[in-house]
Write a structure and sequence with these properties.
Structural class: alpha+beta
Order of helices and strands: HHEEHHEEEEEHH
Distance between the termini: 40 Å
Strand content: 15-25%
Helix content: 40-55%
Oligomer: single chain
Largest sheet: 3 strands, antiparallel
Low-confidence stretches: none
Strand order of the largest sheet: 1-2-3
Length: 185
């Protein structure tokens, strides 16, 4: 039963995401900007046909079907996690809630509403050659515009990486309830 209760968190994320997108659509025109903290933080209404943070995909149908399958896999995995695995459970529920929020937009509108526009820092990676491969380089003058669902997916992915890299018990650790005399045998 506990597995099902955590789905309320995904529903909350989905609802908050859809509510904020609805407010933007009702109160702004496409490409409108409202300064909140000067140029550091603005609300900028854009519609994105690609992935999170404006990453473009060539085959929309394939990407949408992939997102549906991935969401179902996350749901099944989430429901099979043991109760003592709270960290990965919350990471997965954040990813699921955000993924469903953007997937809903993609299915119902054909595009995702993005509106959170921050100027964190510029990124410049010059073109370079490494192991017989030419890398073209990358420039970003302003952070990509995103939404509540993107925040949820990003936080969930960061939590999952932290769990995998630092918190997940390794297979070589001894069980905590085994005494020293039992391990000698």
């Amino acid at each position: 039963m506990r597995s099902y209760r955590i789905l309320w968190v995904a529903l909350f994320i989905f609802s908050l995401d859809q509510l904020t997108k609805w407010i933007i659509r009702q109160n702004m025109q496409l490409l409108d900007r409202v300064r909140i903290l000067g140029d550091f933080f603005r609300l900028t209404y854009v519609e994105n046909r690609g992935m999170a943070f404006g990453i473009q995909v060539s085959n929309q149908l394939f990407f949408t079907l992939f997102a549906v399958v991935a969401s179902l896999v996350i749901l099944v995995y989430l429901l099979r996690l043991k109760g003592d695995q709270a960290w990965p459970r919350y990471a997965m529920i954040l990813i699921l809630g955000g993924a469903i929020g953007n997937l809903f937009d993609r299915i119902t509108r054909g595009r995702v509403v993005d509106f959170l526009d921050f100027e964190f820092f510029d990124i410049h990676i010059p073109a370079f050659h490494f192991l017989f491969v030419d890398f073209p380089g990358f420039d970003m003058d302003r952070w990509p515009i995103f939404n509540v669902a993107d925040i949820s997916v990003t936080i969930g992915m960061i939590m999952l990486l932290i769990y995998i890299l630092f918190l997940e018990p390794s297979d070589t650790e001894e069980p905590a309830n085994v005494s020293d005399s039992e391990t000698i045998r």
